[in-house]
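User: Predict ABC-type nitrate/sulfonate/bicarbonate transport system, permease component's structure from this.
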Amino acid sequence: MKKAGFLLIASWYALAFLAGKPFLPYPHAVASHTVLALLQGSLVRHLGISTYRIFIALITATVLATWLGLAAGRSRKTDKMLTPFAYILYPIPKVALLPVIMLFLGLGNLSKVFLIGLIIFFQLYFVIRDAAQAVDERYVDSVRSLGASRFAILVHVILPSVLPSLFTALRVSTGTATAVLFLAETFATTTGLGWYIMDSWARMDYLDMYAGMVCLSLLATGFFALFSFLDRHLCPWMHLRDRESS
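Assistant:
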């Protein structure tokens, strides 16, 4: 990880030196300007709004996708009802629906949260549904034979089997959510990191532009790290080899 970061920064320095253009400043100039912009508060508001939008979208999509994915994964009848619609709707380019979504939900946070949540919902749904279907029925039968209720089976067998796949899907969805957030915030709005980056680009304030890009990257990295942390603490059985090797 450290080597990759060092290589990235070294490559940035080399490209900035070779280009010799104001639109590609050196990393130390971007870093100092980002810290200054955060301390002055000009960037904090936009970072907070973007964080709120991604957080609400991830939470909402995760709850709905987990509920419906588990239902489809554990019930053939429910699966036959839900999954065909998911297969039909998933390939539709939902970003193209942003103008329509804004007509229904307005230009505020709701339309942006809905678009982000809608796109990552399907990614999560299919992963959870497949993970729930892959649960070894011998474990379910063993717990049921001990008198466990359906809720106990869900809590002690199904959810522990699905959680690792869910956190993997959430880490992947973080990149998707960030990309969709950037696009949504460049459309009919004056808030968020996406707007901040494009506004800086239009003003040719390249240090501000890169500061917004750094914050957007840190936002995505923060959510990725959060899901990795939750994965390690809620699914410790998946990381036994890593602990033994360390």
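The domain at 40-236 is CATH 1.10.3720.10 (MetI-like fold).
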